[in-house]
Design a protein that fits this description.
By secondary structure, this protein is of the alpha+beta class. Helices cover 18% and strands 41% of the residues.
């Protein structure tokens, strides 16, 4: 196997959040064809872990899948913003808790065959409550969930968002 040849592409739809392209590709030894590609800005997310081994989680509804689930703070990295700065900003905007430092925890490409999407998950070990969240539409509840409940909650599909599952399971794998 080898890399595919890209002969060109054209945008079908563009918005500030997503772009849909039709790409003229040719896999080695196979005929050319047009392939859809969904382009996203990178996403930064943060697992906030307290000194009492609790994780800051948000209970929210996702209209696209019509599901309720627990998630970690996350969002699109803005133009000119570092991944770390975006992760820190999203925690504060979505939860009202402030973190000042983050460290890399996980990275994934959730749909590599059809999208350039990249999720960068960070770990913050300290947080200070500063005010109610600015983004009040992001969550119905914000709670600190004991780390030892995360696996069972994931098994029960109470945590299903890919970026949250990736980050939380990485934390569980590394946590003593």
């Amino acid at each position: 196997m080898s890399e595919w040849t890209i002969h060109g592409s054209r945008a079908i739809h563009t918005s500030p959040w997503v772009e849909l392209d039709l790409v003229d590709v040719e896999p080695r030894g196979h005929p050319r064809y047009e392939h859809h590609l969904v382009k996203w800005a990178p996403v930064a997310a943060t697992v906030v872990l307290s000194e009492r081994d609790q994780v800051l989680m948000m209970w929210r509804h996702r209209f696209a899948t019509d599901t309720w689930n627990w998630e970690i703070p996350s969002g699109i990295v803005e133009a000119g913003e570092s991944l770390e700065a975006a992760a820190i900003r999203e925690v504060e905007e979505e939860t009202g808790w402030r973190v000042t430092t983050v460290e890399p925890l996980a990275h994934n490409q959730p749909a590599g065959g059809m999208s350039n999407a990249e999720h960068h998950v960070f770990l913050a070990r300290e947080a200070t409550y500063i005010a109610p969240p600015v983004d009040t539409h992001e969550a119905d509840r914000i709670e600190w969930i004991p780390l030892d409940r995360i696996q069972e909650m994931t098994d029960r599909r109470e945590i299903v968002a890919g970026v949250a599952v990736t980050g939380l399971l990485q934390l569980l794998a590394r946590h003593p």
